[in-house]
């Protein structure tokens, strides 16, 4: 017993050598310390710098400022009380201090979550400071609980924002539609280095979106989510590689897209009044879903025009319920007619998602199997309700086996749990 105790004491004594010896953390190069701190929210990074006196100056030169998810979470906040107001005031003082003490003129990334409790003038000063610091990535998330909020950040019309030549990524995200979301950017807007643009719940009027996009000459990725675009959608971008449009209320608009180098496209919308599309010779993947309202009917020419252009993709994903409100009684009657001689050789795989097995969905499957002769794989993923109805699945499987298909084409019928 005594020997064991001595052995244990020796081990403990040896373990203190490193602690009492050289301070290895403080001797790390500044570049490595910056890299480590870049993985932390700015609030945590500043707290970490207290561990070492030498790190104090490092905290004033961090190139990644992340002020997201700073508010104390106490369930879902439905209104702002005294605690939230005090917390916001303290946080604004913290941001003021960080930016005031910051010693570098080149901030690589800046992300900020804010709400209607913030002081507009202070927010605008922060934005001006950041935009003048050669920022490369800028993300702003604004949460307004009140529909009639008077919070109006002037980011969209500030000169410092509209002429930021260093910006490569811009992410603007509102959490609900209000008058504060109107995108009235200056006419002099110019983003010569912007490659990634992500916009959510913004309102565009007087062709502001078209003008904005046209002044981003090397834009490669564009994401529009739940925006309101009064003038319709017109995208003419030779450099664009990735496009995502989701629920932007384009049912009465004409959608024009000219992007010859597009690699991926995701279009989940109410069917627009018309499509004007150039060819997409480089397209790899297309993901299409049409939102339908009860009683809506859409002309098949809109669908045919879209799928003709997207057929250059190698993989086409379609939400099967997109076909429920189309006026397509049957493929045999040539309601959807394409030239069989123009069968796209690139399209090898099609995936139907949320398949309910309705007649119009089956007609759509027949259509693609008839006119797309180079298909190798057709995957049909059952909806949640169909996945629970094994008897109906068996009946549909027998119907699918009877549909003519290209000689080398395999049809896979999966439940929702089997979809990878």
From TrEMBL:
PROSITE patterns: FBOX (PS50181). It comes from the Eukaryota. Residues 22-73 form the F-box domain. SMART domains: FBD, FBOX. It holds the Pfam family FBD. PANTHER family: RNI-LIKE SUPERFAMILY PROTEIN. This is F-box domain-containing protein.
